[in-house]
Amino acid sequence: MMKSRSIFQLLKPGIPKRYLLFVAALVWTFAGSMLLIRGELMIPNDEQLVWLKLLGSLVGGICFFVFLFSKISLKHSRRIINMEEQRPCLFSFFNFKSYLMMTLMISMGILLRKTGIVPLSYLSFFYILMGIPLLMSSFRFYYYGFRYSKATENLTEK
Questions:
Q1: Hey, which residues does 89 pair with through a beta bridge?
Q2: pTM here?
Q3: Distance from the first to the final alpha carbon of the chain
Q4: Residue 107 falls inside a structural domain
Q5: How confident is the model over 135-141, as a mean pLDDT?
Q6: What residue numbers bound the domain in which 27 lies?
């Protein structure tokens, strides 16, 4: 007997979990790259000691990755791999809380850039500092996407 499906199930853009890891990787790559590019474009041409500020952004970005973003990307990877549905929704690479956090961070970045509350010369280095861990985190999603069978062995909750 054929199982009836609701209209929502028929319209849901479901994809295999492995591909969901690649979607997450692409989104994180896009966000990190966009922040790095915007940050670089906002650096004034006559900036004094720009190399020192860039070095500070690099060190800060790596610290953010090690102490925060690596845990977040691992949590999302584990959540995706352990989803009960074999074809979850295309947009389920984040949970609701993460979508809310992303919306607030994007809004705050735009607000700070458009209002001039923080001078662009300072904001540029903050953009770079945040772009580095986002881009680095995307590599975890790519890794687990390419090594999906190994990832399911290591990250599956027992």
A1: 14
A2: 0.86
A3: 33
A4: no
A5: 96
A6: 15-82+93-102+115-152
